[in-house]
Amino acid sequence: MNTYNAAEQSVYLSRVQELLKIRKVNTPKACVTTYGCQQNVSDSQHLKGLLVSMGYELTDKPDGADFVLFNTCAVREHAEDRVWGNVGSIKKFKEKNPSLILAVCGCMVQQEKNAERFSKSYPYVDIIFGTQVGHRLPEFIYRKLTGERRIIELTLDNSEIPEGVPVFQDGGFKGFIPIMYGCDNFCSYCIVPYVRGRERSRTSEAILSEARQMIKDGFKEIMLLGQNVNSYGKGLDEDINFAKLLRKINDIPGDFRIKFMTSNPKDCTDELLLSIKECEKVERHLHLPFQSGSNAVLKRMNRKYTMESYLQIIKTARELMPDITFTSDVIVGFPDESEEDFEKTLELVSKVGFSALFTFIYSKRDGTPAAVMPDGVTREQKGRRFERLLRLQEREGKKVLESMVGRTVRVLCEEYSGGLVFGKDEHQLNVKFAGDQNIIGKFADVIITNAGECLSGERI
Fold first, then answer.
1. With contact defined as beta carbons under 8 Å apart, do 74 and 114 qualify?
2. Does residue 193 share a domain with residue 145?
3. For FRET with 94, which of 37, 320, 333, 413 sits at 20 to 30 Å CA-CA?
């Protein structure tokens, strides 16, 4: 068992601090590049927190940095290709600065074939570590600074979740709180359970403590993260599930908004939907990936729900909250997806009326069951279907925006440009209105007057 020893890592952290002070006159710089999902972004915030605690100054530029880290993603082939290219480009900085420490971590590294390729083909990579050992970064850097040639640590044993790791929240007034790690669903196309391990939930006490501190620090939006937040609480020695956790966070005093992702339809209960309705700080939006409109494809995907059960969730949610909006993930061109299968996906999109879709052409991931499934669908067919889906969603998304005209929404103001303020409302819709910079990071009530590419309105 890879039990987390906070005291041990604190010792390593202090030792690195001392070594950096001895070895460099100027403050050493660290550059962290993140690929992939919000969970990876959150992981990088913890890694940045450790680096800052060790005495590093964060920079966005690898040139001139003393420590460069790539936090990788294995979900899409495109993300992997970018990593290989960018890690290769760092070699010139290493040649210019031999003391530069180069590290790679994350989901991509956790795959054996990728770890082996980093080890054999990229000998200038000094530290290689997986998804469950990031809290040991001070130890890894100390070992490298004290002469160890190379550190490779890929332990994946579903050990306890390390608490108390410092966090560098770089979102200003928007922040992440991971509530669980790993996944037990084993969808046939997905590599996540193999690279992040099985589900492990944080205690509600740890989550609530972190939420209270963020609210005290002025955060206005808290995003709860997990591979499947709906299954939060399994295995914990307390009477808790995701619906109850939402209520506990909602009860914390303060003016803030609660978001979450990602939800699996098979675990989206009526209890959860009722909690969303009754918790005034939880946004009126649900990201509920359906992936395909065909039950036959869903069965091959091992998604464990049907389109009928999915549509029932949508129906129940709208009965409880008529103004709720939905977004989803869709995979086009899953192995042997027929034209009839795809038509059912289009039918579902028309029935639900999503405000937005995150659409992907199926990307084979070695090591998953889907990777060896026969596939008679050509790339050209998949491309044509993808374009049809995009055109349909453009029309459906426009309908959602047009339905908002005349309504008053609460906008979290995020950006300012040219006399206009841009932000998102409680339905996860983009809104712009005339305003000034002083309102950034605050909420504003806006009456919607126009629906173009995004909603436009006037501040009340």
1. yes
2. no
3. 37
